[in-house]
Every structure is written in C-alpha cells, then in structure tokens.
Automatic annotation (TrEMBL), chain A:
<keyword id="KW-0175">Coiled coil</keyword>
<comment type="similarity">
    <text>Belongs to the WRB/GET1 family.</text>
</comment>
<dbReference type="GO" id="GO:0043529">
    <property type="term" value="C:GET complex"/>
</dbReference>
<keyword id="KW-1133">Transmembrane helix</keyword>
<dbReference type="InterPro" id="IPR028945">
    <property type="entry name" value="Get1"/>
</dbReference>
<feature type="transmembrane region" description="Helical">
    <location>
        <begin position="140"/>
        <end position="162"/>
    </location>
</feature>
<dbReference type="GO" id="GO:0005789">
    <property type="term" value="C:endoplasmic reticulum membrane"/>
</dbReference>
<dbReference type="GO" id="GO:0071816">
    <property type="term" value="P:tail-anchored membrane protein insertion into ER membrane"/>
</dbReference>
<feature type="coiled-coil region">
    <location>
        <begin position="35"/>
        <end position="88"/>
    </location>
</feature>
Automatic annotation (TrEMBL), chain B:
<dbReference type="GO" id="GO:0043529">
    <property type="term" value="C:GET complex"/>
</dbReference>
<dbReference type="Pfam" id="PF14963">
    <property type="entry name" value="Get2_like"/>
</dbReference>
<feature type="region of interest" description="Disordered">
    <location>
        <begin position="27"/>
        <end position="143"/>
    </location>
</feature>
<dbReference type="InterPro" id="IPR016719">
    <property type="entry name" value="CAMLG"/>
</dbReference>
<keyword id="KW-0812">Transmembrane</keyword>
<feature type="transmembrane region" description="Helical">
    <location>
        <begin position="263"/>
        <end position="284"/>
    </location>
</feature>
<protein>
    <recommendedName>
        <fullName>Guided entry of tail-anchored proteins factor</fullName>
    </recommendedName>
</protein>
<feature type="transmembrane region" description="Helical">
    <location>
        <begin position="190"/>
        <end position="211"/>
    </location>
</feature>
<keyword id="KW-0472">Membrane</keyword>
Length: 170, 289
C-alpha cells in the first residue's frame, strides 16, 4: 500500500539535503569561527600593524633613522606573526570544511539508503497505470506495483526539481 | 715636444682604460647573450651548428574549444619565438615546452640538424589533428616518442586551463543557467501538467501531451534569441581533445547533451507538478483517481 505522505517525506528529505548542500560553506565557516577563539587576536594584530604603519609614515627616515628602523623591525615581526596566524587559521578552515563535507555526504547517503530501503516495495504514491502508460513499469521500479510511483523515480524527479528551484531562487 | 709626448701617453693610457672597459662591456654582453639563450632554451653548443637547429621553447599548441576551423591551420603554421626574430621556420618549430623534454634531447637531433627538420616536417606534430594516427606513413619509435611528448605538452596545458577554470566554478557552486527560453519551457511544462491533470489524463496517457509540447518547443526555439553559452573545459572535453577528436564535434555533442538535459528537466518539472496536483486534488477530496 502507498503510504499517504511518502511522496512528501521524500520530497522534504531531498529539499533539506539540497538546502544543506548550498549552506555547507556557511556552516563550515560558522563552525570554524566557533572553534577558533583567537579571531579577536588577529584583528588586534591587524589594527596594531596599521597603527604602527601610520606612525612610521609620520617619522622622517633621515632625521630619526634609529626610531624608524626600530618601528620597521616591529612591523616586520608583527606581520610575520600575523602571517603564521593566518596560515594556521586557513589550514584549520580547510580541514573543517573537509570534515563538514564528509559528514554531510555520509548523512545524505545514509538518508537516501534508508528511504530506498523503506520504500523498496511500496510505491510513494499510486495513480491509475493507464495515466503513465507506456512507461508504468519504469516509473514503478522497483516496487512492481501497477500505477505506482517508485522511490527511485521520485527521488530523481524531486532532486531535479529542487535543484532547479533552488538555483532559480539563488 | 714634451707636451705632445705627454698627450700621446695620456691618450695611450686612456685608450688602454677604454679598451679594458670595452672588453668588460663585451664580456657582460656576451654573458647576457648566453643568459638569454639559456632562457630561450638553447644548448651551449648550438651556436656551433650555425643556428640551424635552434629551438625556442615557446609552446606552440593552443587548444580552443570554440575553434571551428581545421586543426591543421594552427598546428602547421610556424610561430617564431619573440626572442629570436631571425629564427627560421624550421627553427620556430619547437619540440618541447616542458623541462623533461628540454633535459632529454631527442637522439640525432643535434647530430644532423637538416635531417631533423625534415623529420619534423613529416612528424606527428605536422599532421592535422583530425587525422587518425594510422594515417602516418611510418610509425618509428622516435615518432612515437615525439607524439607522446607532444600529447604530454597538451595535457600539461589543459591541466593549467582546467585549474584556472576551476576557481570560478568553485565560487559558482554549479548553478543552472536560466535563459528566457528555458524559463518559458519550465513554466509551460508546469502549466501543461496542471491542465493535463484536470482535463486530459482521464482519456490519455500523460506523456502524449508532454511529447507534443516538446515538439512545439523545438519549433519555437528559433523564435527565441540564442544565448551564447560559455563552453567550459571539463575533464571529459580535455580527454576527447587529447584523443584527437576535433573541437567542433565536441561542441556539437555538448550542445545535444545540453538539449537532452533541458528535455529531462522539463519532464521532471512536468511529472512533479502532475503528481503534486494529483495529491492536492486527493487531499482536497474533490476527485478520486
């Protein structure tokens, strides 16, 4: 028998999966921000460098060379520190992105397999078989119920429609 | 007399200094020439071969998917190096653009320059890309090596091209392109699905009106402005190009593939709307299938 809202359940699952897929970069960056506590330190360093540069621009290199050079060394040191910091942050971000992607695809695969498992023999919805002739067997695959809409066909259709809809909205 | 002698000594000293300066300058110039030659890719002993076997390392193969003319037009046209305007046509036919090839000159190339030019003219790189490999008159191991190396160059260039194109694609997140005709098709499919569910499906299979609609779209397509779609170099197209299939054929195949994709999208939208409207009608309870 066809579960009353099976078609809607599959549609909702596919929609959520596609929505999550589009939001993956935001999710991974959000998680990275959550994990990294020293983002403020980086911004502080940036402002400090800016200030030092501003100060350096006010100093005459000819008249106060020692002070100028000292400041220059300070700026260089701070810039190196910032570079190292940014490098490590970028590496962590890439790692987080990779982990989020892997987790998402594993969950998606699990969801799809469980849906197919659940509706392997039951069609997601049933319509008169003459309406979908001459491809009723193809549409009903793998249920074999005459006039039924099989999970595979419905998954493919939902996936395409949701992709189109999301890209039209995006 | 003394003054004359002193001026002669001065000029002698000056000329000696000038000579030294001149020698130094020439030495520097010669070094720069050597350096330039090294950059351009000449071996040190090549000037001894009357410069006949000079081979600039500039890549001379350019793959372009939009190109419609024969492959031979670009592959046979000589492209002299910008560093060597005096380079002859033979000299401009480069063998390699890769360090691997620069490091391992082909056997016999430096020994008999003239012979190597003759071989180059009849070699693999001279034949049009559309031709089959079996069209070659002879299949000597050297030709095989040349062919392999030229393909290797092409592959390296395609890799660079793909890497360049991948960056915008990553930002784009595989978005679908919506031109006006495509939007029109989708809306038409959705409206037809609703119409079929309400009026037609009792008497006819739902796919018959859809096929009619697709035929109508085929006729209508010429009345819509053609949107130039940027052909992207995918791994598949790169592989096809490297296997010797002309770009024009690949473009046509891609166009057909795109059309099939459009029809599939229409079918999905149509079927989805049909099922959705059927379920809504069932839910409302106005109708039973």
């Amino acid at each position: 028998m066809a579960a009353g809202y099976a078609w809607f359940l599959v549609l909702g699952s596919v929609f959520l999966c596609n929505l999550m897929k589009t939001l993956l970069p935001s999710i991974s960056s959000f998680l990275t921000k959550m994990v990294q506590k020293d983002a403020e330190q980086e911004s502080e360093m940036r402002t400090e460098i800016q200030e030092m540069k501003k100060e350096q621009s006010c100093i005459s290199m000819m008249d106060e060379f020692a002070r100028y050079a000292r400041l220059e060394r300070k700026i260089n040191k701070m810039t190196d520190k910032l570079k190292t910091h940014v490098k490590s942050r970028t590496a962590q971000q890439a790692k987080m992105k990779w982990v989020v992607n892997i987790v998402f695809y594993i969950l998606q695969a699990a969801l799809m397999i469980s849906l197919i498992w659940k509706y392997y023999s039951d069609p997601v919805t049933v319509i008169p078989s003459r309406w979908i002739a001459p491809v009723e067997r193809l549409v009903a695959f793998p249920t074999g119920v005459a006039g039924g809409v099989g999970i595979t066909c419905w998954l493919v259709v939902c996936n395409k429609v949701v992709t189109l809809g999301l890209s039209a909205m995006g | 007399m003394e003054s004359v002698e002193s001026t002669e000594e001065n000029t002698g000293a000056l000329s000696a200094a000038q000579r030294r300066a001149e020698i130094r300058r020439r030495k520097l110039l010669m070094n720069s020439e050597d350096r330039m030659k090294r950059i351009v890719g000449f071996a040190k002993n090549e000037p001894e071969n009357n410069g006949a076997s000079r081979r600039p390392t500039e890549p001379r193969f350019h793959l372009d998917l939009d190109r419609t003319e024969q492959w031979s037009s670009s592959s046979s046209s000589p492209r002299p190096s910008p560093f060597l305007p005096e380079a002859s046509v033979f000299g401009s036919r480069s063998h390699s653009a890769t360090p691997e090839r620069r490091g391992s000159p082909l056997p016999g190339c430096s020994d008999s320059p003239a012979g190597s030019h003759d071989d180059d003219v009849g070699g693999v790189r001279q034949r049009p890309r559309g031709e089959r490999a079996s069209d070659d008159i002879s299949g000597s191991p050297r030709r095989g090596l040349q062919k392999y190396l030229s393909r290797f160059d092409d592959a390296m260039k395609l890799r660079g091209q793909l890497a360049n194109e991948k960056q915008p694609q990553d930002g784009g997140c595989d978005t679908e392109e919506f031109d006006p005709f495509r939007v029109f098709r989708l809306i038409g499919s959705i409206l037809l699905a609703v119409f079929v569910r309400v009026f037609v499906c009792k008497y006819l299979s739902i796919f018959a009106p859809f096929l009619t609609l697709e035929l109508a779209y085929m006729g209508l397509s010429k009345y819509f402005p053609k949107v130039e779609k940027k052909s992207q170099t995918t791994v598949l197209t790169a592989a096809l190009l490297l296997s010797g299939i002309p770009g024009e054929v690949i473009n046509r195949s891609m166009d057909t593939y795109r059309r099939m994709g459009d029809v599939f999208a229409d079918l999905c939208a149509y079927f989805f709307t049909f099922i959705l409207s059927n379920e809504i009608l069932l839910f409302v309870g106005s109708e039973t299938p």
